[in-house]
Design goal:
- It is a single chain.
- This protein has five helices and nine strands.
- With 219 residues, the chain is α+β, with helices and mostly antiparallel strands.
- The strands form two sheets. The protein has a seven-stranded mixed β-sheet with strand order 1-6-7-5-4-3-2, with helices on one face. Strands 8-9 form a two-stranded antiparallel ribbon.
- Helix 1 packs across helix 2 and helix 4 runs antiparallel to helix 5.
- The two termini are 15 Å apart.
- 42% of the residues are buried.
């Protein structure tokens, strides 16, 4: 794919086969909670106070809306609840730990085998097993440009991320001068949260910070 052509296809969560200087804490951030109807078939999350244990490092502006059926079935209601919980947690983490901005539209689509995210700002969840914070974090990264930006090929096409800021960050996290971010298939690792067994609070925080550093590298 040409490094200058913005891709339009979704990036999908794979089906499993098996520091900087501290800044001043703020008590309140824009987090997103239970959905409230704001128009026909559309739900939008509302602000919530962030957990006191999380430290906000910069102003952020990621917001999301969930498209809802006007008369949802029991299956849809269950999916909406799971998706809302996952997206609220993921967006709160991004807004606490980065200065990234994005408006995201989320859909429940039972035809999607896992979940996928597109640079046009849409995320689709299908399989119940992927309606988790880990998946939401991963798919938000795709809407920001991981694997989908026109710059992805030039920065990640060699199989190793070449941007200096994200590279320096993974070296810091791993405590090794030889640490690197490997890339392939529109994904990165470590800290890409490509599989559910990679998730932990520490890995999730590092994922967000690496995505933000990739954007600073020119993603």
């Amino acid at each position: 794919m040409s490094a200058r052509r913005a891709p339009t296809t979704n990036r999908r969560t794979p089906i499993p086969r098996r520091t900087p200087k501290p800044r001043r804490k703020k008590a309140v951030v824009v987090a997103l909670t239970a959905a409230v109807l704001v128009g026909p078939g559309v739900a939008q999350a509302t602000p919530q106070t962030a957990p006191a244990s999380q430290e906000r490092v910069a102003a952020a502006d990621i917001a999301w809306t969930l498209e809802r059926a006007s008369n949802p079935t029991a299956d849809q209601r269950t999916a909406y609840d799971l998706i809302t919980k996952a997206m609220n947690a993921a967006v709160a983490r991004y807004n606490n730990l980065s200065d990234l901005g994005r408006a995201i539209t989320v859909r429940y689509d039972p035809g999607v085998p896992t979940a996928d995210g597109n640079i046009n700002g849409t995320i689709r969840f299908g399989n119940r097993g992927y309606m988790t914070e880990r998946t939401a974090l991963h798919e938000i990264a795709h809407t920001i440009g991981v694997g989908t930006s026109s710059r992805w090929s030039s920065l990640a096409g060699s199989g190793t991320w070449t941007g200096s800021q994200a590279t320096a960050l993974v070296k810091q996290f791993d405590g090794s001068s030889t640490a690197k971010l490997s890339t392939g298939g529109g994904h990165f690792w470590p800290y890409g949260l490509n599989y559910e067994n990679e998730f932990s609070s520490t890995a999730a925080d590092r994922h967000v910070r690496i995505v933000a550093a990739m954007v600073r590298d020119g993603l």
